[in-house]
Amino acid sequence: MEYLVSLSIGVLTAAGVFLTLRARTFPVVLGLTLLAYAVNLFLFSMGRLTIGLPAIIDKTAKAAQYSDPLPQALVLTAIVIAFGMTAFLIVLALKARGELQSDHVDGLADDQHTPDQQDIRKAIDPDRGATE
Predict the structure, then answer these.
(1) pTM, rounded to two decimals
(2) How many Å apart are CA 75 and CA 39, to the nearest integer?
(3) Cα–Cα separations (whole angstroms), residue 130 to 103, 115, 126
(4) Calpha distance 63→57 (Å, rounded)
(5) What is the DSSP letter of 21?
(6) What is the pLDDT of residues 12-41, one digit of tens each?
(7) Where are the beta strands (DSSP E) in the chain?
(8) How far is C-alpha 1 from the geometric centre of its chain's CA atoms?
(9) CA–CA separation, 15 vs 76, rounded Å?
(10) pLDDT single digits (tens) 50-105
(11) Rg over CA atoms, the chain
(12) 96, 116, 127, 131: which has the highest count of C-beta atoms within 10 A?
């Protein structure tokens, strides 16, 4: 069970970082959401993986037969924060799309690109850049 949880945390983190490094705003929002899911799963797993045990110790339960309520409270707080952050990022991306007419993270339009090697070669040596 621990291997499955750690593998899923790793996959969510890797996919979140990969999507966060994209040039468009929608994959960035998805990447940050996946990172928030990975953090939630990590926080939840810190409170021991127990199934069917109460979160509060009562008179009949032994001290070792309960689940820690603190990680559960942290996860609920993180879910609310992640939801608010995602809503803010979506509104920010829509506003940037409306004003810049592009959904690139850096604000460049589709026809405005950074110079690649072919453009640099043409600028340095016009005769050599045209032949390659």
Answers:
(1) 0.69
(2) 8
(3) 32, 15, 6
(4) 7
(5) T
(6) 999 999 999 998 888 999 999 999 999 999
(7) none
(8) 24
(9) 23
(10) 677 666 666 666 666 666 778 888 889 999 999 999 999 999 888 888 888 888 87
(11) 24
(12) 96
